[in-house]
Specification:
Distance between the termini: 13 Å
CATH architecture: 3-Layer(aba) Sandwich
Structural class: alpha/beta
Shape: globular
Helix content: 40-55%
Largest sheet: 5 strands, parallel
Strand content: 5-15%
Length: 210
């Protein structure tokens, strides 16, 4: 299932640092340097006749509850036709580094609330992207006990809201058979340029078949 592209539609990328990627939070045209920039550039070239508009409102460090707090400002007010969300890893790592866990039910409730508000207010096409970690060490690998249930929640929400799911975690697990996990993300979380390019390619394939 791909999204339906129409002329002059607005596509909004939302998430944390992996989406933010230095966008500077200045001006609606700032896309950063990561997968959102790469994917939007390719789509802009491929579908030039449609005049697609892209926005990036990812904020480094955000958890899903932080995204929910700013949702009116950074989504609803912008009235996008398509919303792509990548969030979740910041709800996992604090459990292991700061003893600051996010219960799965809280993760679900916050995510559900923004999706319901978005559907009820704007009814855009929704894209949900799997959060991910790469197995660069045994310590990072232990995070899967927390992340895997949240990925399952994402998949459940994609079904509930008839959203398109982009399987970034599955993609990186397969990619790590071709190259060392650190090739794709040196710290297991933040993608390298190659990792971002792989994400952009997966996003484009799922979203528009490119």
């Amino acid at each position: 299932m791909a999204i339906t592209l129409t002329k002059n539609m607005t596509i909004l990328f939302q998430g944390d640092s992996i989406t933010d990627c230095g966008r500077g939070q200045v001006g609606e045209g700032e896309m950063g340097y990561g997968y959102a920039y790469m994917a939007s550039s390719w789509m802009s070239a491929r579908y030039a006749e449609l005049g697609l508009r892209f926005m990036n409102r990812g904020i480094s460090g955000d958890r899903i509850e932080g995204i929910a707090r700013r949702w009116d400002r950074d989504c609803i007010r912008l009235k996008p036709d398509v919303v792509s969300i990548l969030a979740g890893v910041n709800n996992t790592w604090p459990r292991y580094l700061n003893d600051d866990a996010t219960p799965d039910d809280s993760f679900y409730n916050d995510y559900y609330s923004i999706l319901k508000k978005t559907r009820d207010t704007l009814n855009p096409q929704i894209i949900l992207c799997e959060p991910f970690i790469l197995h660069i060490s045994d310590d990072i690998m232990a995070w899967r006990d927390d992340l895997d249930p949240k990925i399952e929640i994402m998949r459940k929400l994609a079904t509930e809201f008839d959203a398109l799911l982009v399987p970034f975690d599955t993609m990186f697990q397969e990619a790590s058979k071709r190259a060392n996990p650190s090739y794709w993300a040196t710290d297991g979380v933040h993608p390298t340029p190659a990792g971002h390019a792989l994400m952009a390619q997966e996003w484009l394939t799922c979203v528009s078949g490119l």
